[in-house]
Amino acid sequence: xxxxxxxxxxxxxxxxxxxxxxxxxxxxxxxxxxxxxxxxxxxxxxxxxxxxxxxxxxxxxxxxxxxxxxxxxxxxxxxxxxxxxxxxxxxxxxxxxxxxxxxxxxxxxxxxxxxxxxxxxxxxxxxxxxxxxxxxxxxxxxxxxxxxxxxxxxxxxxxxxxxxxxxxxxxxxxxxxxxxxxxxxxxxxxxxxxxx
Length: 196
Hints:
By secondary structure, this protein is of the alpha+beta class.
């Protein structure tokens, strides 16, 4: 059985930030430090939230009841990538397994690549509607699955966002949703108590 204690602790700490009314800069600094600690170990992610599919998958791990933030596991099979998309809210991306490449895309016809981040296990980067919001993300490894943990300033699976045509820059509305029908049960400690 997977010990999800690190995830539970992370969510508790992020909820404290939300309860303190943290602004975006605190989320992107203090939240990034918390996410860096979470992705430093790789034993807590439930296998059901680590399964690759015919396209990249995003599994909801937790959504704050007031939708102030959510935590999502992104699973990238070899060669998989997103369309060019935006977020409209702040976000943090922490690499748990493997590597991914995020390429900022700038408005234009055609759109032009900007900053490129290659994320390796344990590393964290931020996205923000104010700075670096439009990008394309792909698995950097051709021979195995990569998994990143994303935290967003809202319920990202329910937020109306946009995908962009690379040649024209034209936008199309989309809502990403999630690939899982259930979320990990963070609060059942019965097995921990029985072992004590």
